Amino acid sequence: MDDLKSHPLPSIPRSLNVRSVKREMKTFAEASALSFYKPAAHVCFWAPCYKNTMFGTYNAAVMMHLRFDGTFGFPGGLINRGEDILDGLTRELKEELAYNPAVHKPITYDDYHSSRIVEDKLLVLHLFVVELSMDQFVSLEKNATSAEEYGVEVFGTVRVPLYTMNNKYGGLPAFLNNRFIGCAKQELIMALFSIGILTDDQIDELIDNANNMKL
Ligand code: GTP
Ligand code: MN
Ligand code: MN
Ligand code: MN
Ligand code: MN
Ligand code: MN
To answer: Which listed ligand is nearest to 41 at the C-alpha?
Structure first.
């Protein structure tokens, strides 16, 4: 917990390095000082893998979900008043994903990534990036429909297509043209950057390809 208080801001990809993102990003120490803000915590689960498909190759499985409101986001949710962040996050993951810390992995502050504030909603959103083994990841995917919130808050757990097809928009650029809740799209790009899956140059190209895509 002490080293979490001194946890630095992660480096932000060049293309997201705009004033608005910088203003909203907080360290854990800064975020915890905002006592008027309601905390929430979400997780980007990922696992190293190697998949060579007919559409493209990817080196990591990354999890998002389709929410009740039709947007994509990460599993997790609001922390109750007085509830510990890790306890609340674990509860939300159980509700939304049938997550079992004993089988999958206990979430710890080692997995903490960064925090964002949403001024108009008085929310402080903590992001965790959790590495699983591919076996744990696949077990989560398989269990997801048995979660109590499946069909209520959550309408599907998805694996992000992390490649760009030869036509320059199929795969990740097309996925990024979906609707995302809050800043989940930026969080996805930041997580891919922090994990080391995408470089600055690749993110620039990705965003160009996503913007150039005409449906
Ligand atoms: P209820 O149990 O129905 O209250 O929902 P919840 O506790 O699961 O909350 P939810 O996951 O919807 O998250 C709370 C708020 O955080 C939402 O209203 C969004 O504004 C925001 N949010 C939800 N998902 C994400 C996400 O993946 N990333 C970010 N940055 N914000 C999110
Ligand atoms: Mn929930
Ligand atoms: Mn939720
Ligand atoms: Mn909730
Ligand atoms: Mn609830
Ligand atoms: Mn709920």
So the answer is: 1
Can you give the residue ranges of every domain in the chain? 2-212
Distance from residue 16's CA to the centre of ligand 5 (Å)? 32
Q: For tokens 């998002």, what's the residue?
A: 64
Q: 204 C-alpha vs ligand 6 centroid, how far in Å?
A: 36
Residues paired with 157 in a beta bridge: 65
- DSSP label of 181: S
Identity (one letter) of the amino acid at 140? L
Indicate the top mutation candidate among 91, 123, 125 to test ligand 1's pocket, ranked by most ligand atoms within 8 A of CB.
125
Structure tokens at 27: 């360290």
In whole angstroms, what is the distance from residue 196 CA to residue 188 CA? Answer: 12
pLDDT digits (tens, 9 = 90+) for 91-139: 999 999 999 999 999 999 999 999 999 999 999 999 999 999 999 999 9
Question: Model ipTM?
Answer: 0.96
Nearest protein CA to atom 10 of ligand 1, as residue: 77
Query: Considering every ligand atom, which ligand is closest to the CA of 92?
Result: 2
The pLDDT score that the predictor gives to residue 214 is 66
- For ligand 3, the distance from its centroid to the CA atom of residue 187, given in whole angstroms, is 15
The matching CATH number, chosen from 3.30.1490.190, 3.40.710.10, 3.90.79.10, 3.40.190.10, for 2-212 is 3.90.79.10
